[in-house]
Every structure is written in C-alpha cells, then in structure tokens.
Design goal:
Order of helices and strands: EHEHEEEHEEE
Distance between the termini: 14 Å
Structural class: alpha/beta
Radius of gyration: 14 Å
Shape: globular
Strand order of the largest sheet: 2-3-4
Helix content: 10-25%
Amino acid sequence: MSAARSRPYGGGVGDDRIDRASAERLAVRDVMLPRPKTIPLQGTVGHLRAVVSQRNVKEAVVVDGAAFVGLLGPDDVPAGVPADAPLRPYVRGGQPTVRADAPMREALALLEATGAARLAVVAGDGSTLAGLLCPNSEGSRFCRG
C-alpha cells in the first residue's frame, strides 16, 4: 500500500461504508480510509480550520512529508489564535497508531481503550501514514475511500 500524500483540501469520505461486524474479520488496510485529508506540519491554524470545517471531517491528520505526526481537531486550537499562526505548537504528539497489516480486532480494542474518535494507520515502518480509521460516532460503521 502506498503512503497517503499530503492533500490539504483533497481526499474525503466516500459513500462506501462497512459495518463493525464485517470489519472485525478484516485487516486494518481493508477498512481504513487510504487517502485522508492531511495538513503539513508547516501549515497554519487557518489550514486546520479550513479542513475541519468540511463535512465529515472531525480531525485533521498532520504529516511531516509522509510521516504521521498527530491529529488535530477544532477544539485543539483556542478560538482567538490568528489564522496565520503556525500549526506546530498545537499538534498533539504521541497519539496511538495501528499498523495497516494489523487485524481490525486490535484496532477496535485500541479505539475503545483510548476513546479516540479516529485512529491513524501507519505502514510497516511505524511512521509513514498509510490511512485513517474513521468509525461513526456509535462505532458501528467505518468510512472507506
């Protein structure tokens, strides 16, 4: 699987969805959104706000080249921060990730244990962004691209 590329305003959630029971029998790579919307680490708060204002986007994936850096949601940056402010100080590092070849059972357990809304999927090297797991708010279905 190729790495997801930085797509500040591209990508998006397709209409293809998979239910949890079906997902449990698959590998993460078969369920993940392979081209999530990303923001470069060198981006601005304005970039973040533009991405998370789009329909179905709860968090933006921050990347440094092809490497996953963190996830940012609209509440991670105070409202008074100007749009041209650098994004870097607000990036939450150390977030859980799952490898693309892992069984979905492992990813589901990690989502439940952490309470995360989204889960970054990385390649075998442990750092290259491969995709994003996007459960709905009930955790009963996953979006796929």
